[in-house]
DNA sequence: TCTAAATGTCTCATTTTTGAGAAAAAAGTC
DNA sequence: GACTTTTTTCTCAAAAATGAGACATTTAGA
């Protein structure tokens, strides 16, 4: 059961992901509520946007965090982190984009940035571990691998949306491309 | 020497890529002209957006087309198409996104869609050729490979923007990941 | 240097978006 | 069924964005 507040933030994430300055009317429409209702939950655009950030953080933190603690084998862990990220869908890719675009200045002083770092450092440390154990190539920098992961997750999400790739294959393909693309 | 019209479309592509409904003031500012000047070249947002599409089409068509005719070896061609796409930068990724999002219904009846198809079919036919010759795996569908290419190009562009990956390495990394990720 | 074209400044009227009050309608709860 | 909570409808005023006219200023080229 999704409450109204969640319905609105979910809709907002979808809409803002495609068009950051879309009128709030569009968000309300997608959430199937009136603009008036939306404004009862969120005073303004900024407020809503912050709630979206929180929702995305929360989702990703939980999904990635669960996997992180469930697998001790780093390769298995890495694979399942990819799947978790794909399951987070737009929440993952939008969040990544928000913290890696021009205007955003990433700083440890910002609560949101810290939250982001907590989640994404789990990715990074796993990559680092794999590189240390020489399970993935050292020819690629860790930063590139991070970007690559985000790019592949985006590809997976777009594939699902477009409907041109069978849903059951998406994760398989994504892992195939990612693993071969970085393993030694 | 870039003329004003180009300066504005270039700025618009950058801005709209990040925020489709950004105020035209933001575009003017990026282009270092007044909003008044912008409006002398483009009657309204729609008009500007169409000009952006054309500019993106043109750029990609030329870049990809040149490579397509220059290399007879499909693998070499494919590699250089990737580099060309990366050089197109946002023009490539934004264009791809425009033709693969929810609202857009891709149809051969639309001039723009046709233009897009002309360019992207060169990608697709090369992939098909590589698969026929068993140079790339048949485990992955052509549609996935297309999405993957776009994802990797996006990763390359983001890497360049972030400055976290040395510029000289970006193309090397991208090709490393793409080739290993799909070759047999 | 003179002139035509391009751009900027200032201004204005419209339209769109935004945020919220008040009361009716609908949905839950006991 | 009576009561509470939530949502909608209708409304409005303020703010922001849009598109363009009139004229000053700058720029580029003969």
Brief digest:
Two copies of one chain form a homodimer. Chain A has 184 residues and is mostly helical.
Query: Which structural class fits the helix and strand makeup of chain A?
Result: mainly alpha
Name the quaternary structure. Answer: homodimer
Structural domain count of chain A: 2
Question: End-to-end span of chain A in angstroms?
Answer: 45 Å
How many strands appear in the DSSP assignment of chain A? 0
DNA-binding region (chains A, B): 23-42
Domain HTH tetR-type (chains A, B): 2-60
Pfam family, one (chains A, B): TetR_N
GO molecular function, one term (chains A, B): DNA-binding transcription factor activity
Plain-language structure description:
Chains A, B: Keywords: DNA-binding, Transcription, Transcription regulation. Chains A, B: Residues 2-60 form the HTH tetR-type domain. The structure is a homodimer of 184-residue chains. By secondary structure, chain A is mostly helical. Chain A folds into two domains: 1-42, Arc Repressor Mutant, subunit A (Orthogonal Bundle), CATH 1.10.10.60; 56-182. Helix content of chain A is 76%, strand content 0%. The first copy, chain A, is built from nine helices and no strands. Chain A has helices at residues 4-18, 24-31, 35-41, 45-70, 74-88, 90-98, 111-132, 142-162, 167-182. In chain A, helix 1 (4-18) crosses helix 2 (24-31), helix 1 packs across helix 4 (45-70) and helix 4 (45-70) runs parallel beside helix 7 (111-132). Chain A is globular, with a radius of gyration of 18 Å. Chain A starts with a helix and ends with a helix. At the A-B interface, helix 8 and helix 9 of A face helix 8 and helix 9 of B. Chain A binds a DNA duplex (30 and 30 nucleotides) through residues 4, 23-25, 33-37, 39-40, 43-45.
